[in-house]
Amino acid sequence: MTLDETRSTPVRAPHDLIELLREAAGAGPVAAVQVGGRPCVLVTGPEQTQQVLARRPDVYVKRGHRARLLLGDGLISATGEAWKQQRRLLQAQFTLAGTRRWAQHITAAAERVADGWEAAVAAATPVDVGQDMRLFALDTIWRSLTGTALDDVTRRELDAVDTVVASLPTTAGGAPEPSPAVDAALRQIDTTAHRAIAAARADRARDTSGPSLTLLGLLLDASGTDPRYTDALIRDELVTLLVAGHETTAQTLCWLFVLLDQHPDVHERFLTAYAGTPDPARRDALICALVQETLRLYPAVWLVPRQAARDDVLDGHPVPAGTSVLVCPYLTHRSPVLWPDPERFDPSRFLPGGERPGHPAAYLPFGSGARACLGQHFALQEMVTLLRLLLPVHRPHLAPAPRTAVFGANLRPQGSLRATLGRVRYAG
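^ that's the sequence the OP posted. Answer follows.
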């Protein structure tokens, strides 16, 4: 049987890519689909996803990256031996134990946002949840990179990252349309990055007594022993850590507040359980369940492109060399075959006794296999730290609430997230 025969009726070409993929996914865990006039293979089954991302990474490989324009040769877009060496340098910083060294930076960034929300309540002014979540995530990674808080000038300069990300193609193989605004944004990002590198180099020159206490210092230390770590590669790694370290976290937090606003009954149950649980570990588990269910419904990396490096057979279907393969966590997470009532927002799935699939690739908000997200422990620690400060105190009411999602280079709510802040009714 060929892949074309896995679909009983041809997939039409709706305007929205996710609708095209959703329709194709109805044919089964592996399905053929035309995307932008190119034949692709869509993979949504957990076993098949595991084969593509974890068991056969030598067959299903990255061929370039849709964000290479921005990330250069940084870890996310690197391949082969260069990727292995770059990941080896950074991975110890982002293990569960390694992430604890960044706790003070995470806490300081979280307190900055919490103080801002307290000030907004006192002044009876609304907040922009989207901007605040981006500030938190960007401030956290900037502190971890440089050892200093994100100042207002650098924050405005790094708005250029959003300009470039918004221009990126949804799938691999595409390229942004030529744009003077994108060119100017890339120049600004380069200027900001190289300024930070110069400042970090000056700091290291003043203090060479021990190992670096910042991520950027770690990269500079590597340049002393590894000639590959030129200023160009350090820039690429810095920008990669900036983008990967704040985009997905910020969007996940935005979606969490959208979901709580849309489901006041779930919000009430969470607050009641939280108030009735004095154990800090149990309270963190409740927050983690909210985050994990948000990531199930709205995984920031909703589409993972790969390319077949050689002929293969996937779930009994031939996949010729050169075929584009699209793994779609968004559709896997919403499969009724895997998840009971998959469209329902139900954080209890991720609490003890919750009903969820046993297959490890049925839930992959951070990817799977060797190229799974390096910073997943960092991101979870960030979100729990911030939500500990906000959820027991503040209840944002979005007006108006976003009605649609934007399926671009990442998955984000459409429009701004302006909100008024109400006080939670109990003193947790």
